[in-house]
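Throughout this chapter, every protein is written as a compact record of paired, labelled lines. The reader may check this reading against the record printed directly beneath this paragraph:
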Amino acid sequence: MTALRNAGQFRRVAPVCHDIAVGGTQLGLHDSGVAWWAEEQTLVVADLHLEKGSSYARRGVMLPPYDTAATLERLAMVIDAFDPARVIALGDSFHDAEGSDRLPAPYRAFLTTLQLNREWIWVTGNHDPVAPVRLCGECVDEMTLGDLTFRHEPQSGPQSGEVCGHLHPAAKVRRYGRSIRRPCFATDGNRLVLPAFGALTGGLNVMDSAFASVFPPRRFSAFMLGADRLYPFTAAKLIAD
């Protein structure tokens, strides 16, 4: 404590994470659904799907119009807690290619504030294949840092150090006579698939055939998001919908 006072500053303590190894690199999984790379002071978030409500409204499907506000408020809380030097958004940050252009001015200002004094990487996704309009940050198709590669959609076949989103993983278990289904992280130690962070995003059961080319059958783990903690399960404990 004395040394910190002499230095004239106090170190921010990051929230508690569940540490795992992905391709030999240690990452922390947080119950909010983000991954934290402490060594690089990098926060990773997937599938914000901002302006999903307004995207559906354009097609005559009316959803509650508060998804962007709710997602940005949650993201702000996480950024405030971790204070990252870098944020990597793993694609589908906006629900469609025009989503960033529709972003209301107050939300745009709020997002710009979150970007201040930190590097911000927008990874392109299938919903947002172009760079965001009138927003700061670098737009890339994928990014490699150290032994990790950050992209939106997982590549088929074995991959080492891949960190991605796209699939909106969710896990289902049966406990004490009832089933529980929650968004989750999914990993086999070689790659990590993050849960969708956006307010109106659903989840795809990790036992679905869509994950067959991502993980070896029954040879992966799921970390289900709970209240202030994660619940780890091996694939053998999971059930299909």
Observations:
- Residues 17-237 form a domain with the Purple Acid Phosphatase; chain A, domain 2 fold (CATH 3.60.21).
- The chain has one domain: 17-237.
